[in-house]
Amino acid sequence: MDPVAIEAFLAPLARHARKLKALEGLVFWGGAEGWEASPSEALEAEEIAFYAEGLLLDGFRMQWTLVAAADAPTLPDHLRLEFWQDGSPAPPLPPGWVALDSARWG
């Protein structure tokens, strides 16, 4: 893995986390058997980029999304962090949520 490319991919995510310090990062895992409906853990804003960088260096794929509730589409609610190695990428956001920004690695 190219650490410089990973840092470039994570730069917008890190900017969101620095700007929106109260935002949580909700971690979702997927695999050959599908995707969990609930997050496996919640990260504080300052942990998000570091956590993601380690997994990308280990060869995981990732999609991150800055998410807002559909009834307040301009107010960021959380960062959705989706990781997988095998299987398909993350499914679309569940009903009631909208993406404000997003990127995919791998």
Shape: globular
Tally of alpha and pi helices: 2
- Report the biggest beta sheet as strand number plus sense, adding barrel if it closes: 6 strands, mixed
**Main structural class:** alpha+beta
Quaternary structure state of the chains depicted: single chain
- Terminal-residue CA separation: 11 Å
Overall residue-averaged pLDDT value: 95
Which H/E pattern describes the elements?
HEEEHEEE
- Low-pLDDT ranges: none
Our Rg estimate from Cα atoms comes to 13 Å
Which band does the percent of strand residues land in?
A: 35-45%
Strand tally: 6
> Which percent bin holds the helix content?
25-40%
What does this structure look like?
By secondary structure, the protein is an alpha+beta fold. The chain contains 2 helices and 6 strands; from the N terminus they run αβββαβββ. Strands 1, 2, 3, 4, 5 and 6 form a 6-stranded mixed sheet that branches. A hairpin with a 2-residue loop joins strand 1 and strand 2 (34-35). Helix 1 (3-19) packs antiparallel against helix 2. The longest helix is centred in the N-terminal third of the chain and has 17 residues, at 3-19. The chain is globular. The mean pLDDT is 95.
Q: Which labels suit this protein?
A:
six-stranded mixed sheet, 6 strands, 2 helices, alpha+beta, 106 residues
